[in-house]
Amino acid sequence: MSKSSPRYHITTFGCQMNKADSERMAGILEEMGFEWSEDPNQASVILYNTCTIRDNAEQKVYSYLGKQAKRKQVEPNLTLIVAGCVAQQEGEKLLRRVPELDLVMGPQHANQLKNLLEQVFEGNQVVATEAIQIVEDITKPRRESKVSAWVNVIYGCNERCTYCVVPNVRGVEQSRTPEAIRREIEQLAEQGYKEITLLGQNIDAYGRDLPGTTPTGRHLHTLTDLLYYIHDVPGIERIRFATSHPRYFTERLIRACQELPKVCEHFHIPFQSGDNEILKAMARGYTQQKYRQIIEKIREYMPDAAISADAIAGFPGETEAQFQNTLQLVADIGFDQVNTAAYSPRPGTPAALLANQVSEAEKSDRLQRLNHLVALVASQRRERYLGRIEEVLVEETNPKNTNQVMGRTRGNCLTFFDGDIESLKGKLVKVKIKETRAFSLTGVQLD
Ligand code: SAH
Ligand code: SF4
Ligand code: F3S
After folding, report:
1. Confidence at 3, pLDDT banded by 50, 70, 90
2. Is there a domain that residue 136 lies in?
3. CA nearest 88: which of 166, 17, 194?
4. Which of 117, 129, 134, 416 is the most buried (most CB within 10 A)?
5. Domain range for residue 373?
6. 291 and 227 share one domain
7. What pTM did the predictor assign?
8. Based on the domain organization, do 239 and 299 belong to the same domain?
C-alpha cells in the first residue's frame, strides 16, 4: 500500500440494494485510485449510503454526518458525500441542513459517482437527484464477501404500498437485460463466487418493462425465465432471489425452484399484516387467504422450504383484533424468520396523512408481542434440523469463536461448526446438526 494514496470510507445503512450500490461505488473509487479505510477519520473521501425506510434509519445519518462536518471545519480538503435514499428524499434540503456537504446523490446515480466527484474536485457543490435511466456499470464492484454476491436484476418499484417511501426514492422499475445479468454472473463465477442473490424490491416484477411478449400474451422475460436462463453458469452452486411480492408470486416460479437444483429452497415473501382490512389500507393487493395459499403451494412442491417474511405492527387504524390476525398468521404459517417493525410515518406517503395513527406506546407493545411470537415459532421450526445432515456454504470465521467457521444452509439458516477458514472458505460442507436455536444452528463437519 503506497503511503500517498488517498483513502475513502463508506458506511452503508439499509437494505441489500444499498449494499450492492455501495460495492459498486467502492469499485469506482478504487478505479479512481482511492484505497479503502475502515476508519472514517483516516479517509479524505467519506460516503454515507443512507436509508429512510423508517424514521430511526433516517436519523442515524445525521448523527454520523455531524461529526465529520465538524472535522471538515479544520480539514477543508475532506470530501463528504451523502448517497442513497435519504439523499433522494431530501435533495437540496440536505445542503441547508449540513452546508459542509460536497455531494448529494440519489440511488439512481450510484454508477455516476466518478463524473459527480470530478465536478466536486473542480470546486462545485453537487446535487444529483433527477430521475434517470440507470446505465449499465462497467466498473468491477469491490465486494464485501468473496463467496456470495448480490446481483441487481430490477431497480425501483412501481407498487404504491401506502406506508412505503421506496417508490419515491428508488424511482420506477428498470430491469436489466438477461444478457447483462448472465454476463455479470459468469464474471462472478470466474472470480470464484459460489452463491448469487438476485435482487429487486419487487423481484416478481422483473422483465415487465422489457420489450416482448409470448404468443399467449405473457411477458417474454419473467423472473422464472431468468432463472432458467442463468441457472447453468458453471461454478455457481447456489442461486437465491429477493424480495417476492404475494400479489405476483406464481406457481410457475415455484415449479422452477423445485426443478432447478441450484435454486435454494428459501422464500422471502413479506405479508406485512394478517388482516384483510389492513392489507387493503396498505394497498398490498392480496388477502391473507391468498398469502396462505401461496405458502401451501410452496409446501406442496417443497415440504421443507424455509419461509421468511416482513411484517409491520401498528399501521394506522389497526385495532387489537386486527393485530391478533397478524399473530395468528405467524403462528399458523410457522415462519423460519420474520423481520418486524413498528409502523413509522414517512414523508410523501398516504398512510402518514391518516388521522387514526396508533400511539407509540401501543405500537411498541405490539411489536414486542410480535417479536416474542416470532422467536418462539422460529425456534420450534428450527428444531426440525436436529440430527439432520445439512449442506453449508462456508463464508467466514465465527467472530465470537475463532475456532469455528460459519455459513448458511440452503434454507438460509446461519450455521456454526469447528473448522479452519483457510481450507473451508467457499466450500460446500456436509454438517450434522447437533444444536438448534431460534435463528442459528451448530453442528459437526462430516467426512
Ligand atoms: N419490497 C419489499 C420491502 C421493502 S422495505 C416488499 O414489498 O415487501 C422492507 C420492509 O420494511 C417492508 O417489507 C416493511 O415491512 C418495512 N417497512 C416499509 N415501510 C415501512 C414503514 N413506513 N414503517 C415500518 N416498516 C416499514
Ligand atoms: Fe415498498 Fe410496496 Fe414497493 Fe415493497 S412493493 S418496495 S413495500 S412500495
Ligand atoms: Fe432503505 Fe432505500 Fe433500501 S429506504 S430499505 S435503503 S431502498
Report:
1. low
2. no
3. 166
4. 117
5. 148-383
6. yes
7. 0.95
8. yes
The residue whose CB lies within 8 Å of the most ligand 3 atoms, and thus the one to mutate among 21, 51, 54, is 51
Alpha carbons within 13 A on the beta-carbon side of 271: 28
For cell 446515480, name the residue. 109
CB-CB contact of 114 with 138 (8 Å):
no
Q: Is 349 helix (H, G, I), strand (E, B) or coil?
A: coil
Distance CA 429, CA 431 (A): 6
Per-residue confidence band for 143, with pLDDT thresholds at 50, 70 and 90: confident
What pLDDT is recorded for position 212?
A: 80
CB atoms within 10 A of CB 108: 24
CA of 131 to the centre of ligand 2 (A): 18
From 15, 18, 166, 349, the mutation candidate for ligand 2 (largest count of ligand atoms within 8 A of CB) is 166
Whether the Cβ atoms of residue 254 and residue 248 lie closer than 8 Å to each other: no
Task: List the one residue out of 122, 118, 92 whose CA is nearest residue 104.
Answer: 92
Chain length of the chain: 447
User: Does pLDDT of 51 surpass 50?
Assistant: yes
- The answer on 359 and 427 residing in a single domain is no
**CA 413 and chain centroid, separation:** 16
CA of 366 to the centre of ligand 3 (A): 24
Query: Does any ligand 1 atom lie closer than 6 A to the CB of residue 164?
Result: yes
